[in-house]
Specification:
Largest sheet: 5 strands, antiparallel
Shape: globular
CATH topology of the largest domain: Neuraminidase
Helix content: under 10%
Order of helices and strands: EEEEEEEEEEEEEEEEEEEEE
Number of helices: 0
Number of domains: 2
Strand content: 25-35%
Radius of gyration: 22 Å
CATH architecture of the largest domain: 6 Propeller
CATH class of the largest domain: Mainly Beta
Strand order of the largest sheet: 1-2-21-20-19
């Protein structure tokens, strides 16, 4: 995200590994996760003392939002496993059951996480700035901002590909939203039918406002831009893709009196409804530092974001909360990702296996991708 002169989980984790070979040289290192308060209720399955169901069946895992521990093995004095595996919680539960030692399932909090194959998206790189990548759920369409040749300031561009792991075709300007001023932080909905953008228009509320365009289907014509007035203020306002079932947008705004960007959550009852007034995430307000470029997981419990001192380079952080109605915990710096320079704009694929972000590891701000392995 850049403005003005700077134009240019469902998943959980505590650290990401980007090995020690510079911007592009991840060496498949493993990082053991610390003991962080990221599990909710875990819970044994079944109704027996050993946590399993009746003999020969599985225990059922916890109902925790991150899966909790898997169900214990089947019913026996020795705690022997049942014939089938236990189901996890609402997300990533574990393998219960077929373990003769009667151990609990392997789900819940992972022990290690690996990120491999960190590389720029070369086919979209130019000698200018590319930043703010967001994608549709199928990973076939990417939207980003760039001040490359042919742009009027910084404009919104889009590119497509035929498969989720393929090469993107040529990027094109999205003239339905671009103006002769700067556009920044394009945020595409997972279904590809709504695009939010920050831009300064004469008919706005002041400074950069959040505007949106919509369409009836992928490939259909976009509507005229609409000012999303319920999200905007007289200061700069920056959209991000909604998380938590597409019902909560982690937008950034300078409406706070210190003039820095801070992250706000704006909720709506339905994925295509109107947003409520944005509420400041007070526990992520820090003196002299911005909190911006938020990415909220599908379960609403994990927030990735960028933070920096004013006009300084950004680093990525992670904050976790035990439930959607409780505060986020202490920020966790993604130390190995931050070994790159000026890292920002995190976006994680719906299955949690692909991370997209911006960095100037190659000299200019470019779009990067990496493969994420949860273990």
């Amino acid at each position: 995200m850049r403005i003005g002169s700077r134009a240019s989980a469902l998943f959980w984790c505590t650290a990401l590994c980007l090995g020690g070979q510079g911007a592009l040289g991840c060496q498949n290192q493993l990082l053991t996760l610390g003991e962080l308060p990221i599990e909710t209720e875990g819970g044994s399955g079944g109704d027996s003392a050993s946590g399993g169901g009746p003999a020969g069946t599985s225990g059922r895992g916890g109902v925790g939002a991150v899966g909790g521990g898997g169900g214990l093995g089947g019913l026996s004095e020795a705690g022997a496993g049942g014939a089938t595996s236990g189901q996890g919680g609402s997300n990533a539960g574990g393998q219960g059951g077929a373990d003769t030692a009667g151990a609990s399932g392997a789900g819940g909090t992972p022990n290690t996480i690996r990120i491999i194959d960190v590389s720029p998206i070369a086919e979209l790189a130019t000698d200018s700035t590319e930043e703010n990548p967001t994608l549709t759920a199928d990973l076939l369409h990417i939207y980003f901002s760039s001040n490359r040749e042919g742009s009027a300031g910084a404009d919104v561009y889009t590119a497509s590909r035929s498969s989720a792991t393929g090469t993107f075709g040529e990027a094109t300007r999205l003239d339905q939203i671009n103006t002769d001023r700067n556009e920044t932080s394009p945020a595409i909905s997972l279904d590809g039918l709504t695009l939010w953008v920050s831009q300064e228009r004469e008919e706005g509320l002041g400074a950069n406002d959040i505007w949106s365009i919509t369409r009836s289907g992928v490939g259909a014509s976009w509507s005229n831009p609409v000012n999303v007035t319920e999200l905007n203020s007289s200061a700069d306002d920056i959209p991000r893709p909604p998380g938590f079932g597409s019902r909560v947008m982690p937008l950034a705004s300078r409406r706070n009196q210190d003039g820095l960007f801070h992250t706000y959550l704006a909720e709506r009852a339905l994925p295509n409804g109107s947003f409520s007034a944005p509420a400041l995430i007070t526990e992520l307000v820090f003196d002299g530092r911005s909190t911006v470029d938020g990415f909220l997981s599908a379960d609403g419990l994990t927030l990735f974001y960028a933070s920096s001192e004013e006009d300084d380079q950004s680093d990525l952080y992670l904050a976790i909360r035990p439930s959607p109605d409780q505060p986020f915990g202490e920020p966790i710096p993604l130390v190995d990702v931050n070994s790159l320079t000026d890292v920002r704009d995190p976006w994680l694929s719906p299955d949690g296996t692909t991370l997209y972000f911006t960095s100037n590891g190659d000299g200019d701000l470019d779009l990067f991708t990496a493969q994420v392995i949860w273990e």
